[in-house]
Amino acid sequence: MITSDPGGWAPQLVVLCVDGGKMYWIEKSGVGDFSTVFDHEVRSVVHELRTVFPSSTAPAHASFLTGFPPAEHGVVGNQFWDHNLVSDIRYRMANPLLHIHPYENRSLRTSSLLDDISSMGLSWAAVNFPHTFNVLKPLTSPSTYCLYAPRRILVLPMSGTGQSTEFFGEKVEFSFIRNDGTEECEIEVDGKIWQCGEEVRKFWIELFSGHLSVSARCFHNDQDDSISIELGTSVLVLSTSDFCENSAADEGPCSTAADYPLGEGINFFESPRVEWVTETALKALDRWHPDIIFIRYNQADHAQEYLYWLLARGNSAEQAQARYLIEKTYGRIAHNISLLASKIGPFSKYLLFSDHGIDWISTRVNPNAILRALSLEQCAIFQGDSNCAYLYSDEPLTGSDLERLRKYIEKHVPGVSLCSAKTELSLGLPVKSVRVGQVALIAASHIEFDYDAGDIFSRVHAASHGDRPRRSAMSGFLRSRGFGSIDTLDTVEDIHITDLRHIISGVMTSQLCAP
To answer: Which helix H or strand E contains 390, and what residues bound it?
Structure first.
């Protein structure tokens, strides 16, 4: 068991990512303030942590682990492709499991902190942490990672005729069995019986790809004698073999209600729950006794993506409600990290960080609609990140087609420009890499690329990351315990996310060499 007793066991290092966490909210909510957890503890300093371009989860986490910018580690955005045909890209984009590779370890083109740990003879485990897992060829260290699918409502005839819906490329059939005279119904789901009523309950669905946690409730439609089953945001848990035994349904990672009931967040059920991340980390520590554990809480990022525009640009009532919900989310994370630390104890080192920041978005630009306007959509497609879009094509576009693209954007799409090789270099992107496509587009601040169907422009009340790291809005935070001067000196300046591999490896090496 985990113990804070010096004669017992505890991990040497706990790495905690609060995805999207901002210095202000971290300090205000007390995330990582262990002076409230351990006796005689000094409150540690929260530092600004500079990130990379694009300042999004996959590239920034890759830089955290490798110590390199995207030009070297190769993870050039939350989405990119290697030698895929346009038709294959379109097919894969319909299933999140088929375009998860930017978050997988196999996408890294350099060594990483995981290699350093192994070379020291140390072990590690990971919970919901990018680049610590592979779907097709699992790593030897224990890890688990979550994907989510959107909320949906199915209408089931009381005749028992089944209706199927697709989760991560797998069809799951639902059919009404009977109503026993109460408000509850029996619903058959892929051969298993659910007792389902108007009160939301949690269930597990076994998919070939992993365990799917989903909340559900049923209600009767009097007008057409049918049953509607509402499925909340569902969570697919991808784990290495025997990572943890499957928990009871009510302990699964899905949530039972919308956590951010404003604007675009009205249909999103937090996935995975803060508490599930903590519980899973504790189970992993108990079972595997890793020397180092990597844990990622991604809920603050979700809250900010749905609420930050309202906080920054909304009316006074919207600002107050958005502030309350963001603070509530950070507060839950702070409480859970304190709980985790109280279980692990004061004999471990702790490093907390965020990969990027957040800012408001007023305009979305669909670069694939630009291709449609130029009749190039059959042979080319844009994919990429929030502020950089990469052009992929089966055959290189001709010089005349690229010139038409440049002129169209210059004339009709303000705030977007073609990226030169010089600009790519300055942004830390690789030049002449298949992953950045034939050309790249760059969006200005407060503009976000959207790759789904639709018009070129859409006005939105949203928030995102991915912009240039020179903007402090894109910066994350760093807070530590057991890392010397970084813990307590507020004079430590200009810490970059690419510094952390070296810092962690240095501290762990020193600890191993200590008498």
So the answer is: strand 388-393
